[in-house]
Amino acid sequence: MKINSVEKYRPALHFSPKSNWMNDPNGLVYFKGEYHLFYQHNPNDSVWGPMHWGHAVSKDLITWNELDIALFPDELGTIFSGSAVIDWNNTSGLFPEGDPGIVAIFTHHLDRGQELPPVQTQSLAFSTDQGRTWKKYDGNPVLKHQTKIDFRDPKVFWHEQTNKWIMSLATGQSISFYSSPNLIDWNFESEFGEDIGSHVGVWECPDLFELTIENSNDKKWVLFVSVGDNGKTEHGSRTQYFIGSFDGSSFKPDNTETKWLDFGKDNYAGVSFSDIPMEDGRRIYLSWMTNWRYANQVPTDGWRGQMSLPRELTLRKVNEDLLVVQKPVRELTSYFQIREEISDLPIKSEHRFELNESYADVELTIDNTDAKSYGLKIYHTEDQYSIISIDTVTSTLTLDRSNSGEIDFSDMFSLPQSLTLNGTEKINLRIIMDSSSLEVLVNDGELSLTSLVYPDKTCESISLFTTNGQVNVIQGKIKVPSV
């Protein structure tokens, strides 16, 4: 008999709503000891519907407390994606008492029936009690466009060099930049996107920020752009990024190469937290962990949608190229304890480790002696498994989830997910397993592959394997829940 309950597939480490639908992370901001996660939410059903802003807070980015809905639809429309900032100097005039508060900048989406296109405008709301209650600005909307239909997802930050607020806005097949002295009066600065990057789907959820290049004091500006699903590509929805410079008015990329943030099917609409304290200094990013191709069909009961683990972002030089590097936040460490340490373990065909845990974190550094392929087989149960394989001839890592559990809700779900490696002689793998996800990080976060799975259990055991040769696990750790 098939068991289907609200708690089946419920993640232990990843945020998911108690009930109903969730998509894009919104308004990620840190204030007075709390990380705030707002998100696209339909409180009436577990499929996409009239958008509200759900709300959760956390002290450590891993354990979240879901709060009351923050923003509700009104006469200007439903509440689409956006961002939040702390108005420390009351530039908006919304905090006359002198204590800074949170300002949310979001898209109002107004449907006008089948005969007319929807209208998307940018609006404000503010909170004086750490996000527990909200008041919408009386002068909404604060920004609108006469002709653009896709005009949404404002991501706002304070640009120190020019002493003004900057908004990155998704505008069809481009990103438009606006500036403001006060979050209310906005001026167009520039538009980016023509003849560069992937345009297979609508551009969404931009995020512009500076990142430090590892082992240096140099910084570069990075622009994230999510690319929607057109229903025809093998990937569905995914996220690209550009590296370049920003002068407070326009973004200029260093080159025209299309770079993808993640090579799995399930990493979309991710943005970074605002107002992380300067002494912390991290750029922390969170994404919606699914794909628009099947987001409304995944086999959870009573709820749909979960977020990735928060990741710290940096830049790294790899073969004279710059890549965005992603590492799970350090707060995750306290949720694990080491079950087994591995040192100089030769694998000639197969070596198996028992787990039987609700979540796990496996780190391996593997030196290839002469194997044509090698990898891991994650046995969720004896009959349900996911395979991570490395082909040394093509320098390709592939995740196969075609036998991972429930897969028949989407034709695309069982297709392999692959990335190209910078060599296979020595590789570092980190795989974080939760009830319904696998997050694969390669070479200390240099490459990532994020994937949903829907097995009956998280992981009974893992098997390290080779074909036609031998590898040596130089070092490794198998980590399980700390309590």
Could you please describe the fold and organization of this structure?
- The two termini are 31 Å apart.
- The protein is built from no helices and 34 strands.
- The strands form seven sheets. A six-stranded antiparallel β-sheet has the order 23-34-25-30-31-32, with no helix packed on it.
- Strand 31 (437-442) and strand 32 (447-452) form a beta hairpin.
- It is globular and about 70 Å long.
- The chain has two domains: 20-275, Tachylectin-2, Chain A (5 Propeller), CATH 2.115.10; 336-481, Exo-inulinase, domain 1 (Jelly Rolls), CATH 2.60.120.
- The chain has 483 residues and is mostly beta strands.
Could you state the CATH homologous superfamily of the largest domain? Glycosyl hydrolase domain, family 43
Helix count? 0
Q: Work out the radius of gyration.
A: 22 Å
Give a quick account of the main beta sheet: strands, pairing sense, barrel closure. Answer: 6 strands, antiparallel
Shape: globular
How many β-strand stretches?
A: 34
Mean pLDDT figure: 96
CATH topology of the largest domain: Tachylectin-2, Chain A
How many structural domains does the protein architecture include?
A: 2
Distance between the termini: 31 Å
What is the name of the CATH architecture of the largest domain? Answer: 5 Propeller
CATH class of the largest domain: Mainly Beta
Indicate the low-confidence ranges by residue numbers: none
